[in-house]
Every structure is written in structure tokens, then in C-alpha cells.
């Protein structure tokens, strides 16, 4: 499972909803009031699997699960591409 990263520029910590504390961790985010951004890193084994899949012609994919009643709009990308997208909605975090 990818691991949440406390990144430079985060300005808020989202807490697990009651009853989920045992399997949901705190989530450091940057928010400007219109968008929020979290940072994740893959484990070494996940990274190796991505490379193996790519070498075998398998498309690289990331599956996202949101533990909520609905699916909010999300954008997944590199730090630079996410910063560019968020800048359309206001301030971005400092690197």
C-alpha cells in the first residue's frame, strides 16, 4: 500500500472519522479552501512491481479508493502537474 507523506507545505492534518482510527491514518494536506492535496509514496515492492509490469507490456495503473459515501473529483499526478492544476484554483504550497 502506498504510504502517506507529510510533505513540506502541508497546512492541515485530516483525522480519521470515528471508528476508523485503527486502519485509517492522519492525512497531511495542503489546502487553499478550494482544493486539497495529499502526497503518497509507493513502497519499494510496489515500485518494483510497476517496473516489472512495464517491462512486460502491462500499462502502469494506480487504483484509488476513497472511504466515503461518494467519489469526489480527484486529480493524480506529479508534484509539478498537481501544483499547476491547483494554481487554477488559488495559492499553492512552497516547495
Q: Structural class, from secondary structure content? A: alpha+beta
Write down the overall mean pLDDT. 88
Biggest sheet: strands side by side, in what order?
2-3-4
Biggest β-sheet strands, sense, barrel: 3 strands, antiparallel
User: Beta-strand percentage?
Assistant: 15-25%
Jot down its keywords:
95 residues; alpha+beta; three-stranded antiparallel β-sheet; 2 helices
How are the secondary structure elements laid out?
Layout: E1 3-5, E2 12-14, E3 27-31, E4 36-37, E5 39-41, H1 44-55, H2 79-87
Antiparallel strand pairs: 1-5, 2-3, 3-4
Overview of the structural elements:
This protein is of the alpha+beta class. The chain has one domain (3-87). It is 22% helix and 17% strand. It is built from two helices and five strands; from the N terminus they run βββββαα. It has a three-stranded antiparallel sheet with strand order 2-3-4, with no helix packed on it. Strand 3 (27-31) and strand 4 form a beta hairpin. The longest helix has 12 residues, at 44-55.
